[in-house]
Every structure is written in C-alpha cells, then in structure tokens.
Write a structure and sequence with these properties.
6-stranded antiparallel β-sheet; Jelly Rolls; HutD family protein; RmlC_Cupin_sf
Length: 200
Amino acid sequence: MTTLIPFAALAPVPWKNGGGSTTEIAIGPPDSGFEDFDWRVSLATIEKDGAFSLFPGVDRTLALVEGHGMTLEIDGEPTLVTDADPVVAFDGSSKVEAKLNRGGSTDFNAMTRSERCYHTFGRRRLSGDSTFVARADVTVLFLAEGDALELRNEGERIGLVRYDAVVLEGGSVWKLEGQGMVYIVDVWYHGDEEDETYYE
C-alpha cells in the first residue's frame, strides 16, 4: 500500500537522550518505539554541540538536509558532514559527538535493526520527468530539496511538497515529475535477495 506522509502533520519529539529534537517520518512496525522498531526514518534538528543517542544493534545513515553541517566524532574518529560530503553511515552503538560547523543543522536519518533487516540509502537529483521503481520490501522517498514533486502511475497520483515523504509498495513503478533532490531509503528484511542503491 502507498502511504503519503505530509510533514506538516508531524510533530517533533525529544531525542532518546534528550539532547535535541526529532520528527519521526515513518516507522515499522507502526506504533513501535525506540527499543523495538525494525526500521525508522526521521528528520532531526541539532541546535548545539553534543552527543547522539545510543541505539545498540541498529545501523544508521545520516544525511545533511539543511545548514552548514557538522563534524561527527565517531568512536574517536572525526568525520566531516557538509554539502560536499553530506552522507555518513555508522553503528548505532558507536559513541558519537557532534560539533556544529556554523549554526544549526537539519539532518535526515535512516535506521534499521540489524538482526531483522538492513537498508541502503541513495540520493537522486530530479530535473523534469523520470521513472522510479520501488524494488525493496519497504521504500521511503523523501523530498529533501525542491518545492514540489508529483508521483503518478496508472492508478494513483500523489503530490509532495518539501519534507513530505511517501512509503511505496514493493514492485510499484512510478513517473516522477519535479525539480530538486529526493532521498531514498530501501529496507530489506533478511532473506530477501535484491539490493539496489540510487546515488546522485
């Protein structure tokens, strides 16, 4: 089933460790919490330097959406997150300290519990019409840049504005029309074979 998630209808909540705020975009299973989700995607706001929450057993991907980025010290090793290099993957059990570069940062986060499933993350720059195939068990499409995006197939037409997301049914084929950037999270449960990542 295809599910549109309007960002305007969502509300931020405190981080697991209380050090910032996050807006949960989608989670599986529905209504699960920090300790029992299979997968989760969210948009976080970081306003000050500090530590990330710990998520043992969870694989994480972070991608810069807005702001000047930050330096993440992951288990003592620094990683710079900027427009030039906006994506970093790390283990949820790692000790992560964030130091903002210049002001606050807005970041997209994808998480999967490794004993149950795994994810790949991709970015696609849109310019006009293109085709998109949802190949995973769960595919989340997030409009990170751009004013509007339209998805359509034979039976449905869906409109997104910036920060909206849509969860797509596996195997569905869509025409995308719009300008900007989408972030794509593909989630596979263990035992599934195909693995596809869409990079810019």
